[in-house]
Amino acid sequence: xxxxTDSAPTRRSLSPRKRAQRVRAVQYTVLVLxxxxxxxxxxxxQIQDVFFRPDLxxxxxxxxxxxxxxxxxxxxxxxxxxxxxxxxxxxxxxxSQIGPYRWIAxxxxxxxxxxxxxxxxxxxxxxxxxxxxxxxxxxxxxxVWLALGIVGSAYLAETIRGGIQxxxxxxxxxxxxxxxxxxxxxxxxxxxxxxxxxLPPLTNELILLVKDxxxxxxxxxxxxxxxxxxxxxxxxxxxxxxxxxxVAGVAYLIITLPLSLLVRRLEANAGKAR
Length: 274
What we know:
The chain contains eleven helices and no strands. It is mainly α. The chain has a single domain (61-267), classed as MetI-like (MetI-like fold). Belongs to the binding-protein-dependent transport system permease family.
């Protein structure tokens, strides 16, 4: 007759590795069962009719998807360049020994990091009411670059500040010993090294800007200036079907997936360099 002490060694003999393997096996089994259930319970003809109608896929692509994709890229790149320039200035101000510079940069960064990008776009649509006759150059591209770039610069500033602080102080001291001013040392020594280490997080910020560009619809655009989300929504409303939005989503993936792969490659290279 077995006793409780006889079964105790059996339970203790199960190593943590085997226990983890059993847990994973249970998780995978549950996942497979859920997938099988979804496959057999889903109404596939209805799903295709609502989300993947072949005729609407063709109409969406032929109706101007390429131009909307182009606008999305232009909006994003312009905002990113604006954000990099302003973010670099803010990062340097945040690290400055001059108090007012630090205070201004801190207020700007904290304010626009805490403010939803949608509100910033709404404010830009109302600016002509507050300043009659005001006109932003290259509108609507200039408006989008400013609105999206202002929000992006607040996030980019913190990324750039971290990259600057990661450069060894000895590099700055060596540059100053060669007769460089603090500005020259920052421009020629610190920033080039900092940006090399910041490439992965900066690319991540670029991906976020691609997705935030979907808020451009709020400022009101003519059809020739539609970005992907606005274009997809207009087509979906026209045909009362979700397929155009699905196609627009795939177009976003065409932009973001290569960038995500680039981030992983850069992070892997940075890990090897260490």
